[in-house]
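Input/output pair, single chain:
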Amino acid sequence: MQTPSFFDYAMQDQGGKRSRKFLSEMKAFIPWEELEEMLIKEGAYRPKQPGKAGRPPYKASVLLGSLFLQAWYSLSDPMTEELIHDRLSFREFLEIQADDDIPDETTIGNFRNALMDRMLFDKIFAIVLSHMKAHDLVLKEGTLVDATLIHSPEPKRKKDSSGTVMSNKANDADATYTSKRNQKYHGYKIHIGTDPNGIIKKMTTTTAKDSDTKEFEYLTQDEEHFVSADSAYMSKDRKKGLRKKRIVNGIIERRVRGQSKLRPKQQKHNKRFAPIRGLAELSFAFLKYHMGYRVTRFIGLEKNDQYHLLLGAACNLRRAPALIQKLHPQRGQ
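Output:
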């Protein structure tokens, strides 16, 4: 056990007092026991065995909590270890009281890789979402669909002495090129379906060249009331399908071939649903600007898809305190 030093108190609010308050709220809100039970069941974590000699394993909450800290604060493995040492608020969140209880960067990386190998981040995402539903933080009616591009480092072109390109092999063979607004992008595309408050209900990743609309049916398959998306998702067949299921169509209308401008009915439709459709961008704003995720950290579609599910769970948790105050203010008192 260690007594907090003067340095601890001096550093405890590094990053802002709101950050420390947020971590305190997350410590109380995250379903640690349910997550640990899943990890044990899937063989990804072994708790301390009674009577067994040797150093006890790190707590599951410490290992998982370290991954959430990485996601919220855009940290590398070495920086995660460093800041757990330096920030009292991080140690309080992880319930760490001795330096020996702090996982090193290798342990953090190995734990994350073990979860990826077992494809468990989808289960972590599902448990977090279920927990938020149990606390009435996910609106039951309405799915907003959107997609965003995530950059991946481009291939390095090697040239011989004459300047001829010898190799153009991609560092990540799954990453592809696409263009948007006359700008070239290389990497992946994250697709999400959110509730009207921007809580991610479903999430998947494709390579960048895939159409935004490719995952629409998957993202909306459980919706029975209302669907909204930007004009890229509009099609006659999609509108007919939603009408057949008696689902309100909030997809933004666009001009089709031979149509010089939108009809008054289409304009009225867009004016009604455009503000709602934009709410799906809340999640990407949190992901890219609050959590600083703009460039892929892994190679391959499968690993990036798994990591994005971790980020999705972290993003949802990040918004939980504000939603509790908004939807259930009596709980935050």
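The longest strand covers residues 183-194. Residues 139-298 form a domain with the Nucleotidyltransferase; domain 5 fold (CATH 3.30.420).
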